[in-house]
Amino acid sequence: MRRAVVLLSGGMDSATTLAEAIAQGFEAHALTVRYGQRHEVELERAAAVAHAVGAASHRLASVDLAFAGGSALTDPSIPVPKSREDETIGAGIPATYVPARNTVLLSLALAWAEALGARDLFIGANAVDYSGYPDCRPAFLEAFEALAGVATKAGVEGESFRVHAPLMRLTKGEIVRRALELRVDLSLTWSCYDPAPGKVPCGRCDACLLRARGFRDAGIEDPALRARP
Q1: With contact defined as beta carbons under 8 Å apart, do 157 and 150 qualify?
Q2: Which pLDDT belongs to residue 87?
Q3: CA 146 to chain centre
Q4: Helix axes 101-116, 138-151, angle to 10 degrees
Q5: Which residue pairs, CB below 8 angstroms and at least 24 apart, start in 23-27?
Q6: Residue 89 · residue 82 · CB < 8 Å
Q7: What is the separation, in whole angstroms, between the first and last Cα of the chain?
Q8: Tens digits of per-residue pLDDT, 183-211?
Q9: Of 40, 108, 188, 217, which one's alpha carbon is 20 to 30 angstroms from that of 62?
Q10: What is the pLDDT of residues 101-154, one digit of tens each?
């Protein structure tokens, strides 16, 4: 069985990606990163998802991306955009973009993969219903694959790494339906960027709105709603 490292944030997309990796026959090792995000509740959800979906192992790495600032997710003085219209979400790069986040996260996944003898990385990047992040596009993932080939011992010795993004071309509604096909318990997942007191999703940030759109388009009630106070 081939090994793979799967970036797992605890959100709906990454949970579905973990399940996809397992469905494809990989021994999937999940990696969650604490990077100074304001929504640290996702770290708890990632652990629950890794166990429920069946990851071969789950590790938590820590790196400080808050030092650089420049993002509403790591700097509490920058407000998280709320109640944006559908046509506005994805039309530009929002304040929730964390500079170089996916580059750093994939680099951590690459390091662990090389140590494990794995040559496959999975990420829940999506370029259809997303928030306009430049590091969620196919061009970025292709460039990272090329980087892995020249930046690692395995790469210079002739082995190649592949970055899988199985959700890249799916809408949020299609992701919800695929998650259910894979028997992912979406009630365990977390999407909100700006939780209210009591770890309750705000319901108005881009991530909450995209999640709600996905369940609405799929014609399914979000099971996480039933867990809210």
Answers
A1: no
A2: 72
A3: 21
A4: 40
A5: 23/182, 25/1, 26/1, 26/2, 26/120, 26/122, 27/1, 27/2, 27/3, 27/56
A6: no
A7: 43
A8: 999 999 999 999 988 889 999 999 999 99
A9: 188
A10: 999 999 999 999 999 999 999 999 988 766 678 888 899 999 999 999 999 999
Stated pTM of the model: 0.94
94: tokens are: 């929002």
The amino acid occupying position 161 is F
Residue 8, Cα to own-chain centre: how many angstroms? 6
Q: Tokens at residue 64, please?
A: 């400080």
Q: What is the DSSP string of the chain?
A: --EEEEE--SSHHHHHHHHHHHHTT-EEEEEEEE-S-S-THHHHHHHHHHHHHT-SEEEEEE---GGG---TTT-TTSPPPBS--TTTTTSS--TTPPTTHHHHHHHHHHHHHHHHT--EEE----SSSS---GGGSHHHHHHHHHHHHHHSHHHHTT---EEE-TTTT--HHHHHHHHHHTT--GGG----SSPBTTTB--S-BHHHHHHHHHHHHHT---GGGGG--
Output the CATH code of domain 3-227. 3.40.50.620
CA 3 to CA 45: how far, in whole Å? 23
